[in-house]
UniProtKB/TrEMBL annotation:
<dbReference type="InterPro" id="IPR013783">
    <property type="entry name" value="Ig-like_fold"/>
</dbReference>
<dbReference type="InterPro" id="IPR036179">
    <property type="entry name" value="Ig-like_dom_sf"/>
</dbReference>
<feature type="domain" description="Ig-like">
    <location>
        <begin position="119"/>
        <end position="228"/>
    </location>
</feature>
<dbReference type="InterPro" id="IPR007110">
    <property type="entry name" value="Ig-like_dom"/>
</dbReference>
<protein>
    <recommendedName>
        <fullName>Ig-like domain-containing protein</fullName>
    </recommendedName>
</protein>
Length: 271
C-alpha cells in the first residue's frame, strides 16, 4: 500500500454569518473507506460509517449550522458561522481492508468582522522638499481582529524600521457581542532615499486581515487609502552685497569730499 495522506481543507478566515465548506481530502480508494470523522477542537462533530443506517451521526456542535442537504462522506458545509465556530478542525479516514486509519493535521479557522471603511492618512505637509522627511499617521477602521497596517511609497512596501506601530484601540463598538478594535501606525520616510524622485509621491496605507495573504486565499479583508504629496525644490534666497551704513558725521565728510573733487575738476577745465 502506498503512503496514505489525509488533509483537512477549509478557509482560514470566514466572515461572521457566512458559510464555509470543510473537506477531508485524501488519496485513498473511495471503495476502501469504512469511516470518516470530522473534529473541532479535538471533539467529534460528524461521523460517517459506510453500511450503517443512517450512515451519518452528528454530535453536539455550537457556532454554526451543519447544512444537512450538502453533507457528503468527506465534506461538511457550515452555515451562519458565529464566533464560537472558530477553532481547530481535523478529519480522520479509516479503511477496512487493510485495517488502517489516518488523522489529518489540524487546520485553524477564524471568524472575522470586516472593516466598513478605508483607513485614514494624515500628513503634516502637502508640499515637501525632496531632501526632507515625509511624516504621516494612519488608523484603520474598526474590525475583528484588529487589522494590520502596511505602508507603501510609490507602490513599494516601506521598510518596517521606518514605521512606528502604536498598537490597537478598543473603540467600544460591538458586533454580535464581539468588541471591535482599530490599529494606529506612523511613518517617517526620508524622501532623499527615493531612487527616481518625481514631482509627486504616492503614500498608501494598506489595512488587512490577516497581516499577510495566505496561499490560495489572499487577504480575507483589505482596505487602503492613497494620498499624493507634492515635492517642491526650495530655491536659495539671493545673496546681497554688504552695505555700509554711515553715521551723520561720516555722511557730511563724504559729501564734502565729493564737493571738493567737483571744484578741482572745474578749475582744471577752466585753466
Amino acid at each position: 500500500m502506498s503512503e496514505v495522506w489525509v488533509e483537512l481543507r477549509a478557509p482560514r478566515f470566514v466572515v461572521h454569518g457566512h458559510s464555509a465548506q470543510v473537506r477531508c481530502e485524501h488519496n485513498v480508494d473511495p471503495g476502501t473507506i469504512y469511516k470518516v470523522v470530522f473534529f473541532k477542537n479535538s471533539h467529534r462533530i460528524m461521523q460517517y460509517v459506510r453500511g450503517r443506517d443512517p450512515p451519518y451521526e452528528f454530535y453536539n456542535f455550537s457556532g454554526a449550522d451543519i447544512n444537512l442537504i450538502k453533507v457528503t462522506p468527506t465534506s461538511l458545509t457550515l452555515d451562519r458561522m458565529d464566533f464560537n465556530a472558530a477553532g481547530t478542525y481535523a478529519c480522520e479516514i479509516a479503511m477496512e481492508i487493510p485495517l488502517y486509519s489516518k488523522l489529518s493535521k489540524i487546520h485553524e479557522v477564524n471568524v472575522i468582522v470586516r472593516q466598513k471603511h478605508r483607513p485614514k492618512i494624515r500628513i503634516r505637509q502637502q508640499k515637501l522638499s525632496p531632501n526632507g522627511d515625509l511624516e504621516a499617521t494612519c488608523h484603520s477602521s474598526a474590525a475583528y481582529p484588529a487589522p494590520h497596517l502596511t505602508w507603501l511609497v510609490n507602490n513599494v512596501k516601506v521598510d518596517e524600521r521606518l514605521t512606528i506601530p502604536h498598537g490597537t484601540v478598543n473603540v467600544h463598538r460591538y458586533h454580535h457581542g464581539m468588541p471591535l478594535s482599530l490599529t494606529n501606525s506612523s511613518l517617517r520616510f526620508p524622501l532623499s532615499s527615493l531612487q527616481h524622485p518625481n514631482q509627486t509621491v504616492d503614500i498608501t496605507c494598506l489595512s488587512t486581515i490577516p497581516s499577510y495573504p495566505t496561499v490560495g486565499e489572499g487577504y480575507a479583508d483589505v482596505q487602503n487609502q492613497t494620498i499624493t504629496v507634492n515635492l517642491v525644490r526650495l530655491e536659495p534666497s539671493p545673496t546681497q552685497l554688504p552695505v555700509k551704513i554711515l553715521s551723520s558725521e561720516e555722511n557730511k565728510s563724504e559729501r564734502l569730499k565729493i564737493y571738493n573733487y567737483f571744484i578741482f575738476i572745474m578749475i582744471c577745465i577752466i585753466y
